[in-house]
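Hey, quick one: can you model this chain's 3D structure?
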Amino acid sequence: MMNKNKTVWGIAAATLTIAGALVAPQAAVAHSKAERMAEAANNKVEALEAQLQQMQYELQALRAEAGRPVSSADSAKVQELDQWMNSVKSEPAKADSKDDMVFFRGGYAHADSLRGGTLDPTAPGGNSGGVLNGAIGEQDAWYFGAGFDFSLNDDLFGMMSGTEVLAELMFDYKELGEKEPNGITPAIGGATGLPAVNTESATVNQLTLAASPKIKFLKGQAFRPWLIPVGFELSIVSPPSDAITVLNPGMQFGLGADYKIWNNLFVGADARYHYSPDNVDGVNTNGVTAGGYVGIGF
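Sure thing. Here's the predicted structure for all 298 residues.
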């Protein structure tokens, strides 16, 4: 019985020895893996601590920069910007206004002198010493026309704020209210026995083309006066002069004003003096026009 027990204990001891030999390497491997995991965690913690320290340094630098006193130059710039913003806010909102305009005009015209007449070629001396048959028109007339204003500058080329410079292109048609026989009258033809007698009447009229600089004041306002210091014009007369001349260059001077009544619709009035240094072979085109106009901005 005792031998049997010894045998059992021997088997048990051998079994424990073998089991310990098998478990020991696995335990060693597990211990080594745990150490590596702990080391990696420590490295991550150290990296996080380094990042936190860097962030603290940056925060401290920002706080120091914020607490730094502002220089005088920076302060002046800030004040200048504040003043500009306040001035912009205080200005009233400006309505959308069109500076270019097309206008249609009409009114009364008066010539400085009669347009003249024709010479009687049958009188002694011919044309050089002929007798004037008489004026072929009156001095009063009516006119109508149209034109364009083109904006060139808003401040008189830097010399005056709110004073606009425009280029005006315009034409008008003038017609005297009276018609008279032109050329050899029937009375002269009958007295002289000439076969060819002109019995037609002549409509005395004139077409004027003009280009002028226009100075317009009070930009941005509803009421705007203006003036034309001097402009160029070319007049076409009909009937022609005795020398069959129809063109007469000259100048014009003008002043006026317009008022914005609604949206971009304007009404205005103007007066102009038309002057030519010389007549056209006996035909004088000097005179005055005065009237009103309706304009549309665009």
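One thing worth noting: The helical segments are 2-66, 72-90, 186-192.
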